[in-house]
C-alpha cells in the first residue's frame, strides 16, 4: 500500500528543486522531509532521487511522480463530487509545461475562460517547444505543450496546430548586413538571436536554406526581450507571427525572406488517467487553441 505522505514529500522536493523549499511548502522541517524520502526509498528498495542540485528523480522516482500527478487530478474530481471530502486547504495548482512563445501569444486567450469557470489555478513551467516533454517524463507536470508528436508512456498527444514564425530584423540591421539583399550565406554570417541553448529554430531555418554549421548569436531567454533586441538592431531572429503584428505594421521590424516562413507544429500532451478536469481542459484546447494557430499539415 502506497503512503501518500511519502509520495507528497518526493513530489515537493522535485517540484521545489530542493529539500529546504519542499520543507517550507509541506510545513515540515528539512530533516523530516529527508526522513520521508529515506523511508520511501527503504520501502521501494532503491533510490528515488539523485542527490544533485537540483535533486533529480531516478527511473522509479519518475514513475512515482507520474502516479502522484494523476492521483492529484483524480482527487480533485472526487472532491467536486463529494464536497465533504475537501479538507479546506488551498487548491492544487495544475502544473503545465509550455514554450515561452505560446505563453506570450495564444495560450492565455485559449485557456482563460476555462480556468475562470472551473476555478482552476495553473503553475506554468516555461520550456522550449523541443524539450518540454522531459518535464512530463520526469513526472513534474500533468500536461505540456511541445513540438514532439510521440507521447510518453501513459499519455496521449493531440495536435493543436502550428505556430508560424517569420525571420525578422530591424531596418537598420538589414541595411548594415544585407545592402544587396538577403541571401542564405549572408544570413549565416550576420548575428542572430536565439532564445536559449535548447532553441534550435534558427539552426533549423538555416539548414532548410542549405546552410550548415555554426553561426554567431545572442542568447535571450525572454520572448518580449527577443523582440526588443531585434528592434534595437542586435540581430535577426525567428519570431511568432502572432507576436509582432504591431512591429511589422510600424516598420520597426521587417521580413528577411517573406516567402520562407517556418511552421512549428504544437502538440498537447496529457495523462490518459488524468481525470475529468484534464479531459475537459483537453477538449477546451481542441476547440479554442486553433484560433491562435495555423492549421498544421499532417
Automatic annotation (TrEMBL):
- Ranges for domain HTH lysR-type come to 2-58
The record's section on Pfam families has: HTH_1 (PF00126), LysR_substrate (PF03466)
UniProt cross-references to InterPro entries, sorted A to Z = ArgP (IPR017685), ArgP_gammaproteobact (IPR023490), LTTR (IPR050176), LysR_HTH_N (IPR000847), LysR_subst-bd (IPR005119), WH-like_DNA-bd_sf (IPR036388), WH_DNA-bd_sf (IPR036390)
**GO MF, any single term:** DNA-binding transcription factor activity
Is the keyword Chloroplast assigned to this protein?
Answer: no
Q: Where are the transmembrane segments?
A: none
The free-text function statement in the UniProt record for this protein reads: Controls the transcription of genes involved in arginine and lysine metabolism.
Q: Which family does it belong to?
A: Belongs to the LysR transcriptional regulatory family.
Q: How does it assemble?
A: Homodimer.
The name of this protein is HTH-type transcriptional regulator ArgP
This protein's species is Pseudomonas guineae
Amino acid at each position: 500500500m502506497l503512503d501518500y505522505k511519502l509520495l507528497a514529500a518526493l513530489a515537493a522536493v522535485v517540484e521545489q528543486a530542493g529539500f529546504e523549499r519542499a520543507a517550507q511548502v509541506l510545513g515540515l522541517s528539512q530533516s523530516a522531509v529527508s526522513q520521508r524520502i529515506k523511508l520511501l526509498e527503504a520501502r521501494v528498495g532503491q533510490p528515488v532521487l539523485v542527490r544533485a542540485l537540483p535533486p533529480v528523480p531516478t527511473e522509479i522516482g519518475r514513475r512515482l511522480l507520474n502516479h502522484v500527478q494523476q492521483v492529484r487530478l483524480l482527487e480533485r474530481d472526487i472532491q467536486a463530487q463529494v464536497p465533504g471530502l475537501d479538507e479546506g486547504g488551498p487548491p492544487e495548482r495544475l502544473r503545465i509545461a509550455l514554450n515561452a512563445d505560446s505563453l506570450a501569444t495564444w495560450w492565455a486567450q485559449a485557456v482563460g475562460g476555462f480556468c475562470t469557470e472551473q476555478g482552476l489555478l495553473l503553475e506554468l513551467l516555461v520550456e522550449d517547444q523541443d524539450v518540454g516533454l522531459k518535464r512530463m517524463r520526469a513526472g513534474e507536470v500533468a500536461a505540456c505543450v511541445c513540438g514532439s508528436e510521440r507521447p510518453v508512456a501513459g499519455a496521449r498527444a493531440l495536435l493543436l496546430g502550428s505556430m508560424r514564425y517569420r525571420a525578422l530584423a530591424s531596418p537598420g540591421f538589414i541595411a548594415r548586413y544585407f545592402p544587396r539583399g538577403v541571401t542564405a550565406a549572408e544570413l549565416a554570417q550576420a548575428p542572430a538571436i536565439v532564445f536559449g541553448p535548447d532553441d534550435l529554430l534558427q539552426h533549423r531555418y538555416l539548414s532548410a536554406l542549405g546552410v550548415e554549421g555554426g553561426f554567431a548569436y545572442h542568447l535571450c531567454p525572454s520572448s518580449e526581450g527577443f523582440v526588443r533586441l531585434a528592434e534595437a538592431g542586435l540581430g535577426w531572429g525567428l519570431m511568432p507571427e502572432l507576436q509582432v503584428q504591431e512591429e511589422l505594421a510600424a516598420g520597426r521590424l521587417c521580413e528577411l525572406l517573406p516567402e520562407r516562413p517556418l511552421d512549428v507544429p504544437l502538440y498537447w500532451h496529457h495523462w490518459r488517467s488524468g481525470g475529468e478536469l484534464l479531459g475537459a481542459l483537453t477538449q477546451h484546447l481542441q476547440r479554442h487553441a486553433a484560433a491562435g494557430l495555423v492549421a498544421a499539415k499532417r
